[in-house]
C-alpha cells in the first residue's frame, strides 16, 4: 500500500479467489435514472425490471449512421449481485427514403453478437418507427456493449459509399429494459466495496448509516471517512447518505458503526463485544439479499482506526471479519495532490489521464479522443497565454493530396488544426522515416487557454481523414486509416501560482475548495450543532461524500467539533452546519454573515447579482464582484435554506462555509443542490446562495480576501493592474522626485564650479605643462 502499513489478525473465510469468481456472475447496472417497475408474477421473488434510455447511457444526441456501413455503440454493465433473466430493446429509429429495402437493414448487436436484423421497408421510410427487439439473456455478460449497425444501399449499380442518401438515425429515447434476479454474494471483505457500491451500477448511490446511539465526534469522523470513500467510488453517479439510530434497514445494504467494550443489540442484530478495531461483513437479518458492513471498536478512536484501515487498505483485506492490529500512516498528504486533480507541480503525460488504447482511433470518421482535465480550483491564470501542451501524434498518410487534419479542441472550442500531409506532399527523407506500420510521427506545441476554463475540462483530439472520390465505379473504401496520440505527450500547468479570491461558492460546489486543498481534509473542521439530529448527520455525510467525489480520496483527517470547541480549530477551514436555531456560531458571527436567522426573523444581504446577464463570467475577478447594496429582514414565510462563505473570524486567510436552513428538512435541499443535475438550471456561485427546492438564487458575490500566494513580480503586476490611479499617482510622484534629485545634483555641481578658479581655455595643439602651486 502506498501510504499505510497494515497488519491483520483473526481472518475468517479467506476465500478471495472464490469471491472474485462469484462477483463475475451476471447482473444489470443502470445509469443516472432508472425506471423501476413492480415485478410481475412471471418474475421470480426478489427480481426486478429496469429500463434505461440511450440518453441515460451517455448518448446525449441521437445516433447518426451514414454510409454503406456504419456502427455506433453504448456501454451498459451488470451488477455483481444480480443475474439477467431477460432483456429487450424498444428501438426508435428512422431512415432514408432512398434506400433499397432488399439490400438495407439495421442490425442490433450485443457484444458483437447479432441479436436481431431489422428490414427497412420503403413504405415506412422517413417516419419515426418503434420496434421491440428481444435480446437473449445469454448474450449479456459482466461488461456489455450495445451496438446499432446500419447497412444501406441506394442503387443496384455503382454507388458512392458516402452518398448523402445513405443515412439512418437512432433516437436516444430508445429504451433498454432488463429483468434481473438477485444473486447472494459471499460475506467477504475481499470484494469491497461490493455490494455496498458496484462500479457497474451507474445509478446514484444511496447508502444508510446506522449508529447504536448518538455518536461522539470520533465516531462521526470515522463515518465521514467512510462516506467520503464511498463518494469517491461513486464518482459521477453522485452519492447520498442517510443516518439512523439502533434500527437495521428492512432491506438492502447498510453501514453499521458501534463502539464500546460490551456486546450490543441493534434492531434485533446481536453483536459480540469488540476486541479492537474490527471490520465485519454479514447478512442483513431483515433481508437475505442485503449486507451489513459493521465497523466496531472498544471506543471511538478504535472505531476510527478501523474505518481508516478499510478506506486506505481495502485491497489487502479478506475474510468476513478482521481485527486491525496495527495501522501506521507513514506519509502525510501534500497540498493539491488529490488523485482526481491534474498535478500542478510537474508536466503530466496524457497516458496518465487516459488508457493508451483509448488514445488510438481508426477509420475515416473515428470520433473524438477526449482527455479529461480536472484542474486545481485556484490556479492563477490572470493574463496568461495558456498552458503548454506538447503533443506527439502518429497517423497513416494517404497516397494523394487531401484535406485530412488533426483538430485540437478544448471544451468544444477550436485551438488548432494540424494538416495531415499525404505521401505525395512529403519529401523523400520524411517518407523514409515512416515507421514499420506505415505511420508518420509528428509533434506540435499548443497553448491551452485556462483563464476561463471549467474545473472539469476536456481536451478533444479528432482525426479527420478526407475521403477521395476516384470516379464512378472506382469509389472503394479501404478502411486502413489509423491515428494515435502518443501517451508521452505532456500538459504542463506547473508554471501557475495558486491564488484565488474568496469566498467563492462555485469552487466549493465543484471541488469542495478550500477544504479539499489537502485531499484528506486534515486542515478542515466540521462544526456540528451540539445536539445534531438526523438531518444534520445526513448533510454532514453527504457533503463529505461530495468532497470524496471531488478529490478521489477519503477524508481521513477531518475533525468534527461543536461550537464550544471552535477555538481549538482556529488554524483550520470551517464547515458549519445548522438546522433551525441549533448552531450558536450563527449568533456569535452574525456581524459577518450575509444571511442569518434569529427569533423567527430572517435577514439577507442583497446585491445586483440576480439582475446580471445569466452565466456571464470574466477572467478578471474585479469584474465579477456584486457587492451588497441592501440589507433586508422579514418574518414568516416558508423555510429558507442558504449557503454562504466568509473569512474565518479566528484567523486571516482561513475560510468558513455555512450550510443552514430554518428547518431540519431544508438541509437535504442544500446537499441535493451541491450534487446538482439537469433539474438545476442556475449555478451555485458568489458568496451567498439561497436554495428553494430546485431553484438556486445567487444574491451576493463579494470577494473580501484571498488565499494562496503569488511570486513577487506577479504580485506587483497584479496589484498595479487593480490600482491604476494609484500607479499613475506614484509614477507622477516618482517623476517629481527624480526631477528634484536631478535638479539638486546639477545645482550642487554648478555651485562647486562657481566657488573654484575659472577654467582656462585648453590648447590641444601643445602638451599641457605640469601645474605648480606657490607656497
TrEMBL record:
It is a single-pass membrane protein. Keywords: c-di-GMP, Cell inner membrane, Cell membrane, Cellulose biosynthesis, Membrane, Signal, Transmembrane, Transmembrane helix. Residues 1-35 form the signal peptide. Residues 754-775 have a biased composition (Basic and acidic residues). Residues 753-775 are annotated as: Disordered. Binds the cellulose synthase activator, bis-(3'-5') cyclic diguanylic acid (c-di-GMP). Tightly associated with the cellulose synthase catalytic subunit. Belongs to the AcsB/BcsB family. Coiled coil: none annotated. The chain crosses the membrane at residues 724-746. It is found in: Cell inner membrane. Pathway: Glycan metabolism; bacterial cellulose biosynthesis. This is Cyclic di-GMP-binding protein. It comes from Pseudomonas kulmbachensis. Pfam families: BcsB. It comes from the Bacteria. InterPro entries: Cell_synth_B, Cell_synthase_bac.
